[in-house]
Amino acid sequence: MRKFVMEFTTKTGGSLPTNLRVLLPWLQLIGKSSFFGLIISLAWTLSAQAMELRVAISKGVSNVGVGSSTPALVKNAGGATIGRLDSLVPANATASGRNINLAGMQASQITIEPSGDGRIWIGDRWYRGKVRLIRQGNGVSAVNLVDIEEYLYSVVGSEAIPSWPLEALKAQAVAARTYAIYQTSKDSNRYYDLDTTTATQVYKGMNNEYVSTVEAVEATAGQVMTYNGKVILAAFHAASGGHTENVEDVWMSPLPYLRGVVDYDQSSPVFSWNQTFSNRDLSRHIGGIGTVTGLTPLKVTPRGRIASIQVNGTGGRKTLTGNAIRQALKLRSTLFTVSRNGDNFTITGRGSGHGIGLSQWGAYGLAQKGTPYQQILSHYYQSASLTQLNR
To answer: Which part of the chain is the Sporulation stage II protein D amidase enhancer LytB N-terminal domain (predicted)?
Structure first.
């Protein structure tokens, strides 16, 4: 901690501001990087759209560490205040019967609302907005209630590379905003809209906010992709390996805006790749058929992605979907071929992700050529329109 304080005071002219001295006890608990992220973000005053998202940070865990950078109100499910949290005093939320116990306060659901421009601590990092604690299963779930535009500051910095051209970051911002809004209309019975993983969109709180990602979000504030007046399923992935897919060849029935197009992802580090497995390696990952002796694709998409594959072994055979074998072997995509050399199998593939919709590395490639974000989006979301939501 002493080293960090010395670094910080050097950068600020040799003294630690009074309002930052009170944060030092918190620094001991949360570490240097999280503390510095909080300081930077508190210095930004940013506009936002008035739409609140529910982002599941943790699901059904035994306990969740929470806190606030400013004094915070603690409310129950009905919105009544049942207590307060002091600023920068960590607390632990645990399950207690049918309730949640937070520093002696108990309720079936608890919401912590920081005062002023306060930030919320959940688990191991800072977030904007509020936190809702829900009794779930045998544990506690923590949901970040956050304005969509502020949420995107982090999503763009988590999904894309902050040093990319601004037009690529703008395209990512619009795609992520569109995807988030689409998710809010899916399951009204679910207690969250999105999580923090690639299952929806990667979200790492204020740790992954950057000047460039904030600029991209603000420059496109409220803009989404629509088709026939409705927000689209704005799928995106890292890199397609040269050509994106028609959605019906990979996921579902056709959608007019998710069509396969030429990609511009040749500069991606995952444009092409290969992994070699021994038959013993494969047998550990794919159980129940003895020692693996062969991998035979049964069905491929028009662009060559594996839809299903037969795995032969000394003790039988098994048919897996492309996604299942991708997960089992931790492959970057299902766009691959298999070759065998003795007891070794080499999987040679291209791209990373499902190959549907916007290619992040393709957006980078187009932006490098000077393509504006509007054209990048219209290329990957065919027939969709860029629409400004009412503020």
So the answer is: 137-227
Q: What is the mean pLDDT of residues 222-236?
A: 97
Residue 320 β-bridge partners: 309
φ, ψ of residue 312 to 5 degrees: the values are -100, 145
From residue 137, how far is each of 134, 141, 217 by CA, in Å?
Answer: 10, 9, 36
Place of tokens 């977030």: 127
Q: Given this model, what pLDDT does residue 376 score?
A: 99
H or E, element range at 350:
strand 344-350
**Residue 79 to residues 76, 106, 107, 265: CA-CA distances in angstroms?**
5, 14, 11, 49
User: Whole-model pTM?
Assistant: 0.86
* Tens digits of residue pLDDT in 74-84: 999 999 999 99
Calpha distance 168→358 (Å, rounded): 11
> Given the structure tokens 């569109």, which residue do they identify?
178
Q: How far apart are CA 241 and CA 350, in angstroms?
A: 5
Per cent of the chain over pLDDT 90 is 84
